[in-house]
Design brief:
single chain, about 575 residues, mainly alpha, two-stranded antiparallel sheet, 21 helices, globular
Length: about 575
């Protein structure tokens, strides 16, 4: 019996079963170190998980890597209009904003350099990748600093510090947007130091750029997927903050560059792409709000106007944050005491002059256009300008109202919403705190608003046709290249051929709005945009002789006068 239990000292090896190695598996399977069946367009593992499937191949001619990209079947059929345009950061085209007059799918344009296809797609693969030390440090910076200085009230703070980060731990694109925003915020902090580490600032901007592009691509792929609406909306709000803050940092760097140390072109401020991405969050929210509950493409051709909703607040969630915050409403103390009164007293005559000029242009133009097929249509450009002028009038009235500089405090809460879920469209599946936050950020909510949201609401309320005119004109302007003087501008490669009266009126309305944006110098992610864009417009309109006013218009141009006064006040503050 004992002998039967003895084990032979010589091990017995069973022959290994024949198998085929997966050498050309998809990116996701390789990252997980699992065998890929190499099925196309999607392998079985990616199909089972509902993931994006990517393959790498060697080109026999050029030797470059080509990534073939496949999508889940349902989003693939709805992907029209969700392509990232190839744009250079320093140059762009207003074509990224589609016209509302024709049916088209929703687009989120990228205001950043078009990356190499390999980097762009390869970096977006869902994976179990652990954040590196740099990303972890930036995540900590966001939770402890960035979220606090952006929030206006406790509802904002709950969304930015608790709600969105919790979503981000289940969404790599959302986490990338958090890291991008934190990197730009840290760049801003470094710019405030007496001894600036420019190399570190530029490195942070490169890191932020990479994470933003990675997130932007996946955001567009997730847009048609109903299960991703919360992540899409949360991501869109962070991208609004990232776009404006990145633009501000680049403006600051451009203003402080010298002939000895010029700023590399890839770090120069964008032309007009920042406008597109700021507006994109509003379009996504309104598209979901006005859409039917059945999933479909989010289009811009809504026949009904966007509904304003009263934010649905989760009081117990916000009340869990026992913290006092100091919100950045808009103007700095210097601007509040000096520039604001000047604008308030002079804005009335300036608005009357702008109205008079708009009437002269309207009466002197033929408001119809003949298409190639012989049909006569209305000139939507001039009509969009007049609509935008009405929007500007409403914002101007609110900015200089009695209580404009003393909005509700961070402890007060707007009234509770009694909206039923059928009125929320596809937003009915989104958490109440997120609906509330996005509604306020995108100017879709009723009730008191901080001055910064009142002014920036202009970009969300004007017609798309108007912004197309503005962006086309902005893209033909030069970029400041000198020491901050008004005359130091580089020429632009894009030329505006045969500008119409609608172009001239559109950019003049935009210049008047930019004067109001100068009031937001106390908001770190907006301050600087108003003076920069207004300086570009003033220099361009002077060089193009667009400032020859009709007889009924005042002898001086209000935006130019306010730009000069603002520059003098800034120089006075810098000399103290």
């Amino acid at each position: 019996m004992i002998e039967a239990l003895e084990v032979s000292p010589t091990p017995v090896f069973r022959p290994r079963r024949a198998h085929k190695k997966s050498r050309n598996g998809c990116v996701q399977c390789k990252q997980r170190k699992t065998k890929c069946d190499e099925a196309t367009p999607r392998c079985s593992r990616c199909a089972k998980r509902g993931m994006v499937c990517q393959y790498r191949q060697k080109s026999s001619e050029s030797g470059t890597i080509i990534v073939s990209h496949s999508l889940p079947e349902e989003p693939q059929r709805r992907r029209q209009g969700l392509v990232v345009p190839s744009l250079s950061y320093a140059t762009s085209s207003a074509e990224s904003l589609p016209s509302t007059s024709s049916p088209t799918s929703f687009q989120i344009p990228s205001p950043l350099p078009s990356p190499d296809p390999v980097d762009k797609l390869y970096s977006n693969a869902y994976s179990d990748e652990i954040l590196g030390w740099t990303e972890l440090e930036l995540l900590s910076h966001y939770l402890t600093h960035t979220s606090r200085i952006i929030a206006f009230d406790l509802e904002d703070l709950y969304a930015l510090r608790i709600g969105i980060p919790n979503l981000a731990f289940r969404s790599k694109p959302l986490m990338s947007s958090i890291i991008a925003l934190a990197a730009v915020c840290k760049s801003h902090d470094l710019l405030q130091q007496p001894q600036q580490d420019r190399r570190k600032i530029l490195d942070l901007l490169v890191l932020a750029d990479r994470h933003h592009r990675s997130s932007l691509l996946q955001l567009q792929l997730d847009l048609p997927n109903a299960s991703q609406y919360e992540y899409v909306l949360a991501n869109a709000t962070l991208m609004v903050l990232y776009t404006s803050s990145s633009h501000c940092i680049r403006i600051r760097l451009a203003e402080t560059q010298t002939k000895d140390k010029p700023l590399p072109r890839e770090f120069l401020p964008a032309q007009s792409q920042w406008i597109s991405l700021i507006r994109a969050a509003h379009l996504a929210f309104v598209g979901l709000l006005n859409a039917h509950s059945e999933p479909a493409d989010i289009g811009l051709e809504d026949t009904e106007p966007p509904r304003e909703i009263t934010p649905l607040l989760v009081h117990s969630q916000a009340a869990s944050i026992n913290e006092i915050i100091s919100p950045e409403n808009g103007p700095s103390e210097r601007t509040r005491g000096l520039l604001y009164p000047i604008l308030a007293s002079s804005s009335g005559p300036a608005l009357n002059a702008l109205r008079a000029k708009a009437r002269v242009i309207w009466k002197s133009q033929d408001h119809t256009m003949t298409q190639s097929d012989g049909f006569v249509v209305e000139d939507v450009g001039l009509q969009a300008c007049l609509t935008s002028l009405e929007v500007f009038e409403g914002i101007l009235s609110e900015v200089f109202s009695k209580d404009a500089l003393s909005p509700r405090t961070s402890c007060q809460k707007p009234p509770h919403s009694g909206l039923d879920s059928p009125l929320l469209g596809r937003l009915s599946t989104v958490s109440g705190w997120l609906r509330s936050y996005v509604a306020r950020v995108t100017s879709s909510a009723t009730g008191p608003r901080p001055l910064r949201r009142v002014i920036m609401a202009f970009l969300n309320k004007v017609p798309t046709e108007y912004l197309n005119l503005v962006q086309t004109t902005l893209d033909s302007m030069g970029v400041r290249s000198g020491d901050g003087q008004q005359e130091a501008w580089e020429s632009c490669d894009i030329e505006l051929l045969n500008p119409s009266p609608a172009h001239k009126l559109a950019i003049e309305i935009f210049a008047h709005w930019a004067v109001l944006v100068m009031l937001l110098d106390g908001v770190w992610w907006i301050g600087g945009i108003g003076a920069w864009e207004l300086g570009r417009v003033v220099s361009f309109m002077r060089s193009q002789s667009w400032l020859d006013p009709p007889q009924c218009v005042a002898e001086y141009w209000w935006p130019e006068r306010m730009y000069i006064i603002g520059a003098e006040l800034r120089n006075l503050a810098n000399t103290k």
